[in-house]
């Protein structure tokens, strides 16, 4: 009996081991290979941009990935011949203020739409959600006219205030709050907490994953903003980084070595932000606020 048991234990792992050909034909292997291919396709343009930023103007379009004449002159030009550091600061300041303000107001609006009972709540949410169907070029001229009448053109306020509202953030946060357990909020209300304390002390701490993900989305969207800053500002001191990169394009040609160097510098904060908060992005996919 003991010998039969030992023989069974010895042969069971070998019996369960699948052949190599069967493992290669498994759906998981195919999905892994597809993910690797798509990752390489996504990373290759970024790698090309970085390597080309170290090329000279004569070799930047030679079609080679590795620079033949390695140089740092492009980055020196970007930071000495133009006020690119000022452009970076403008984009960072505007994006940071919009992100903080948007998360604060959006979370309050979403909590009210998810938990508070008041007449017209569903209609108000439907109206907010309907704005997702309106594209930015449709409201560009009306927004410009309103900003001009309010005296917001050529100012930080004109770049920040119109970009704070975002129906996507309110919608996503509302759906997240609907998935939170009501028992915690009801217990806090029984203990004497008002809606503000419930929101500040209970709801917001449980919303860190989704707020972190939205912060990255908002910051990235405003860091890459181009059309509205182009329309709303003429002051050189208010130029954002995307307009600064476009300024390297002339009427008769483009200095692609300078453009790629500036684009590489502009991409570094976004890559750093993603690597720091990648765990929060993954956690934001979860529908529950508790683990």
Annotation keywords:
291 residues, mainly alpha, disordered N terminus
Question: In brief, what are we looking at here?
Answer:
The protein is an all-alpha fold and 291 residues long. The chain has helices at 2-16, 20-24, 27-52, 73-80, 84-115, 121-130, 136-149, 156-164, 167-178, 182-190, 195-206, 208-223, 227-232, 241-246, 256-276, 278-283.
Terminal-residue CA separation: 47 Å
Strand-and-helix sequence, N→C?
HHHHHHHHHHHHHHHH
How much of the sequence lies in strands comes to: under 5%
Helical stretch tally? 16
Instruction: Give the CA-based shape.
Output: globular
Major sheet: none
Approximate helicity band:
over 70%
Number of strands: 0
Low-confidence stretches: 1-15, 287-291
Mean pLDDT: 83
Radius of gyration: 26 Å
Q: Decide which structural class fits the backbone.
A: mainly alpha
